[in-house]
């Protein structure tokens, strides 16, 4: 009788022993293989392990570049970069308790619930918590030791002059790239190139060691502007006071070096503080002196007379009968404020007669006036280097009807920016040559374009002096100790819809130069929609010109060219001759 195999005790024990031996052999074989592999990798192939380890702890981190400093012509910084920190979070790595989130929200002045939602959203791997944060606050945040929360260094632009130079300098965005003004116009010059460095980070992402600098950062280049910060402050202060006093909608001032074409000041109000993004308002962001156009009114008359002189149509002594103070062209009536009778061309400029200007224009070829205006830069951007420059409006002379030819003589039917207007007047200061504009400090001689003959420029300059004397439209523009010439402008505002002109809305302006014996500065002032009874350029804009010009001449140490007496000083309450508008 045979015994079943599985019931035999000895056979069962032999089978267990065989299984144990096989298992032990496999285990020892595995350990042996791992040991051989470890010895191989560490002794003969350790580069692989080192590389894999470094991948997990080493990173290439950017090194932010310092943006170039912007200075005024005297070397005073007006835009500098300051170090800041940006805080960001990787929600996938984030692990924060409610107490930690509350502490973070307190530092950032944020809603704890909103931050908790950010930390809980594991679908994202990168979220900014705060850009351009002050370093002390950033250190407070990093001291909380929040997993998944990191910081990186950046730079933020700071503008010492604030709103005074906001429109000229412009702003940069959160990535330190220029968005407006000089910051935008010279972005490639001012911007640096970021560098790179290899660093070791811990499990929380903090940099614990800088291993090497792969590429050094290249700082941006510095920029020196043509602006004089002291004159800029003066222009902004006087403009702001005038806009407030006359309850005006807005205003602008431009100050030019008449010889070099350098912009010494350019101010607008309302303005904005480039250091505080929370204060930005659409109405305050426009650089009105550059981007806005208006009908210049009677400030065009000196340019008309210059063209007429060069065309041999009139001389300063030529008489014009302005009749009863009105003049019919087609079916339109051109008027003066009151009858002035027979006037010489010089007197017509002094009292700003529309009738006289229209009659001169109708005696000329339209091409002669148009050519001079074109040479003076009207109808084309002034090429100052500032963004947003406008062309203005100057239609081809071939399309001018007689009434348009007449009204353009006193600045209706065309449009200019204040910068264009100021630039055109530099021709009267330079024997008929208009220097190129620049926002940068000019080292060499300025190039220029001849706008009119030297003879015409000198004769018109003498007429402009009459405007500021008693009997002219702008005695309030005088500056004690200096001979001053200039021209007032008062124009009805053009309706934005429906055509025609507003009956009770005006643009008041004045453009002038000094010292008249050897002009050094040109100052242009524009006040938009002055309220109340005073709206003539001689009452609203001329006093601003006087104060800005007086201060600028002192800052530049320009010697007086006449006596300091009542004849050269602005009158207290001398009558101002009203203009027709």
In the CATH hierarchy, the third-tier topology of the largest domain is known as Beta-lactamase
Largest sheet: 5 strands, mixed
CATH superfamily of the largest domain: DD-peptidase/beta-lactamase superfamily
Low-confidence segments, ≥5 residues, pLDDT <50?
none
The structure class reads: alpha+beta
Name given to the CATH architecture of the largest domain: 3-Layer(aba) Sandwich
Q: In whole angstroms, how far apart are the ends? A: 140 Å
The top-level CATH class of the largest domain is Alpha Beta
Q: How many strand units? A: 19
Q: Percent helix among the residues?
A: 25-40%
Mean of residue pLDDT?
A: 88
**Strand residue content:** 15-25%
The coarse overall form would be elongated
Radius of gyration: 37 Å
Please work out how many helical segments DSSP would assign: 20
Number of domains: 2
Q: What is the element layout, followed by pairings?
A:
Blueprint (H helix, E strand, L loop, with lengths): L8 H36 L1 H12 E6 L6 E2 L5 E13 L8 H11 L3 H9 L6 E7 L1 H8 L6 E10 L7 H4 L11 H5 L1 H4 L4 E7 L5 E9 L7 E2 L4 H17 L4 E8 L5 E7 L12 H4 L2 H4 L9 H10 L8 E3 L4 E4 L2 E4 L6 E3 H7 L2 H10 L2 H10 L26 H7 L9 H12 L3 E3 L12 E3 L3 H14 L17 E10 L6 E14 L6 E8 L8 H4 L1 H14 L26
Parallel strand pairs: 2-8
Antiparallel strand pairs: 1-6, 2-3, 3-4, 3-5, 6-7, 9-10, 9-19, 11-14, 12-13, 15-16, 17-18, 18-19
Helix pairs in contact: 1-2, 9-20, 12-15, 12-18, 13-18, 14-16
């Amino acid at each position: 009788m045979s015994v079943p195999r599985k019931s035999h005790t000895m056979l069962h024990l032999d089978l267990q022993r065989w299984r144990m031996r096989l298992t032990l052999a496999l285990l020892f074989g595995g350990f042996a293989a791992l040991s051989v592999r470890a010895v191989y990798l560490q002794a003969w192939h350790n580069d692989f392990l080192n590389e894999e380890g470094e991948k997990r702890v080493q990173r290439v981190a950017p090194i932010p570049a310092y943006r170039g400093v912007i200075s005024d012509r005297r070397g005073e910084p007006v835009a500098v970069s300051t170090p800041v920190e940006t805080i960001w979070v990787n929600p996938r790595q984030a692990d924060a308790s409610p107490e930690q989130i509350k502490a973070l929200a307190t530092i950032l002045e944020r809603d704890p619930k909103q931050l908790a939602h950010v930390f809980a959203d594991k679908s994202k791997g990168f979220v900014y918590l705060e850009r351009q944060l002050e370093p002390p606050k950033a250190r407070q945040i990093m001291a909380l030791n929040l997993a998944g929360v990191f910081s990186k260094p950046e730079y933020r632009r700071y503008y010492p002059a604030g709103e005074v130079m906001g429109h000229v300098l412009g702003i940069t965005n959160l990535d330190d790239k220029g968005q407006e003004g000089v910051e935008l116009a010279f972005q490639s010059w001012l911007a640096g190139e970021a560098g790179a460095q290899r660093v070791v980070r811990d499990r929380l992402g903090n940099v614990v060691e800088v291993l090497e600098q792969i590429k050094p950062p290249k700082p941006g280049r510095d920029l020196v502007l043509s602006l004089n910060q002291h004159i800029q402050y003066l222009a902004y202060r006087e403009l702001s006071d005038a806009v407030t006093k006359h309850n005006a909608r807005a205003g602008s001032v431009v100050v030019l070096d008449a010889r070099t074409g350098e912009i010494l000041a350019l101010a607008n109000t309302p303005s904005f503080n480039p250091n505080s993004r929370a204060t930005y308002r659409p109405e305050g962001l426009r650089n009105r002196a550059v981007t806005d156009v208006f009908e210049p009114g009677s400030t065009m008359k000196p340019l008309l007379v210059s063209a007429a002189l060069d065309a041999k149509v009139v001389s300063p002594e030529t008489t014009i009968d302005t009749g009863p103070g009105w003049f019919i062209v087609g079916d339109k009536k051109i008027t003066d404020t009151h009858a002035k009778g027979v006037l010489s061309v010089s007197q017509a400029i002094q009292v700003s007669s529309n009738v006289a200007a229209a009659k001169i224009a109708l005696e000329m070829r339209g091409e002669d006036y148009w050519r001079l205006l074109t040479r003076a830069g009207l109808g084309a951007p002034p090429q100052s280097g500032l963004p947003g420059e406008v062309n203005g409006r100057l239609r081809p002379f071939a399309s001018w009807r007689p009434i348009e030819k007449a009204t353009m003589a006193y600045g209706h039917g065309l449009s200019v920016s204040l910068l264009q207007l100021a630039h055109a007047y530099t021709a009267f200061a330079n024997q008929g040559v208009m220097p190129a504009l620049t926002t940068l400090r000019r080292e060499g001689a300025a190039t220029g374009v001849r706008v009119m003959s030297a003879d015409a420029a000198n004769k018109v300059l003498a007429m402009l002096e009459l405007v500021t004397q008693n009997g002219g439209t702008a005695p309030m523009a005088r500056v004690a100790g200096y001979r001053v010439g200039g021209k007032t402008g008062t124009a009805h505002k053009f309706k934005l819809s429906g055509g025609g002109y507003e009956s009770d809305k005006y643009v008041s302006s004045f453009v002038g130069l000094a010292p008249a014996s050897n002009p050094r500065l040109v100052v242009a002032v524009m006040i938009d929609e002055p309220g109340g009874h005073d709206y003539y350029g001689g009452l609203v804009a001329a006093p601003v010109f006087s104060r800005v010009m007086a201060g600028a001449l002192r800052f530049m140490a320009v010697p007086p060219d006449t006596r300091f007496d009542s004849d050269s000083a602005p009158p207290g309450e001398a009558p101002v001759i009203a203009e027709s508008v």
